[in-house]
Amino acid sequence: MQGPTIFTTYNVVRLLGNILVLLLVCFGGALAGTSTYVLVLYENIAEVFGRYVFYGCLYAALACGIFAVVLGLFAFYDFTQENRFTAILTVVSSLCLFTVVLILGIILFSYPRAMQDQVLQAMTSTLPEYGQTNHVTKAWDMMQSFLRCCAIYNLGWHAYKNTVWFRTTNLQLHEKDVLLPVTSPFYLSVPESCCYTLLDGLTGYPTDTYRDQNRCQNWQYGPPLYTDGPHNDALYYRVCEPPLCYAAVTIMRSFPKCC
């Protein structure tokens, strides 16, 4: 007596469908988890990039991730129970998800310069508050330390002269509203987060050890005091713009340190 055939077309299609559903659930879970992780631990970055851009992108990614997980569960039920209602719901939901992702992709592809200009405007408006507002200061320190960059524009260390941090740090103690001369050993041009830190030989992540903090913040022969002169290898030369690509790489690289 011949037993039931296992490798039928229906079983193969159902197996492939379940595999695709599993991949969809994993993708949705990873997307939702990453978005939640960034929202919880990197919320200060919104002060640098702009709240509308930062939270808009993250909440859109979080919604797509949750929707993908729910869609995958419905699809898994459809492949196992053969329910017509769930089949129709799965198809409609898949089309909706595909449409949303396609629209977001078209927007990002069509208006990259507008997005960068908006982010750049937000960064330019928040940098003068460095040293005054705690969350803005932490956001800039976090971004510059992780991304290993300094200021916004190329060779733009002088932008820190317009910050509250610069005016309070270089203020003379005995004379009100008078700054220290640039020749003073206590004169600081940039904050510590602009200083080059050594990398860990095993993990490749930045450490808390500076190459030469004094040379980074106060050097009389070139940057950051002047835009030209000998190269200062204790200072970050890379500019923190465009930030979105660098931020994505930083966030993904930070997972092994926390998990």
From TrEMBL:
Its main location: membrane. Gene3D superfamilies: Tetraspanin. InterPro entries: Tetraspanin/Peripherin (IPR018499), Tetraspanin_EC2_sf (IPR008952). It is found in: Membrane. The keyword rRNA-binding does not apply. GO terms for cellular component: membrane. This is Tetraspanin.
